[in-house]
């Protein structure tokens, strides 16, 4: 009995110093990994929080870290706000119910009409930070996340749209080539990130390449800076790539003849369907600690060694080991689409490698912090994890029918503005409300 009692303090001492060693090792690992593609926690406090997390993704996605821009949509006939909220915008329905509890603002949300413009800013972990609903271009409502719930106010500022045409020559990184353009002061990073989503700049960009960009900015009349800056058309001419494309109403970019810059996407990265053992859930409660720890992916229960295949064309940006995720892969598919695969037995691709839809990239396993063989699969759109089983995915390689006709009409206008053949003030009046 005495041996058992005295053994317990030694046991906890070993756990304490072992945990301290793990924290130190993980901090060294994170600080030494300087790849720019995936943001890692920059300080020790987030590393310590990650050690308490169940899943690897919690260590990589700081809470309430907003993406660079607002998202926007114009309500269409037949739209239901609750369905858009969850299925298209990937926002928690509980947040919508919270907004509807606000006595001042609920009447606006309960009476949405086709043609109304709605804008929102969400964190990378899917939490709503701000919402604006416009009854007209000059009148709207705004909800802002505060420490205790949401505040509400009426807006009476005129929304203004301004178009900017930029031309430049690449000299080093794109963001550096945009720094001496006063029209976009402070917005260089947003624009560079937007173009990087559509072009393989890290691989094929070379000094001396030329580019033309058509930028749309939205302002509130009493604000000194734009709240939204969007790329709507571009022309890039370089030694290793020549690409010209415009933004369609679906939010994606297409070449002048309607070919998508992002190929069709498979729903799951496996040759056959397997049982889903854990679904995407922003409010998953840890079975042991009882704490709410979001699950940002879909877990497929598979036998060890099951082949994992790329759901779409893309480029491997990471293929390595992580203490929580085990062997893992990250693929960038362009236009803000990125996928991640955790707990693999082995990876069969290398960073920088281009992959095709359906190509074998790895085998499922039980590595890292895992309780059994499975694949943890994540889909990220514009920096935010979304439910891969419900997200709206690219489905066509080229527009057809009425969609193609609509795109050709609008893109001709955008390319005319890009080439300087029409006054941007006149072009702004021709463009439809942004979706």
Report the span from N to C terminus: 71 Å
| Helix percent band | 10-25%
Mean pLDDT: 81
Classify the secondary structure makeup into a structural class.
alpha+beta
| CATH architecture type of the largest domain | Roll
Number of strands: 20
Whole-angstrom Rg: 24 Å
The fraction of residues assigned to DSSP E strands is: 25-35%
**What about the largest sheet?**
10 strands, antiparallel
Low-confidence stretches: 1-17, 26-55
Instruction: Report the principal-axis shape.
Output: globular
**DSSP summary: helix tally:** 11
CATH fold topology of the largest domain: Nuclear Transport Factor 2, Chain: A
| CATH class type of the largest domain | Alpha Beta
Q: What count of structural domains?
A: 4
Cofactor: Zn(2+)
Organism: Marinospirillum insulare
Transmembrane segments: 12-30
InterPro entries: Cell_wall_metabolism_enzyme (IPR050570), Csd3_N2 (IPR045834), Dup_hybrid_motif (IPR011055), M23ase_b-sheet_dom (IPR016047)
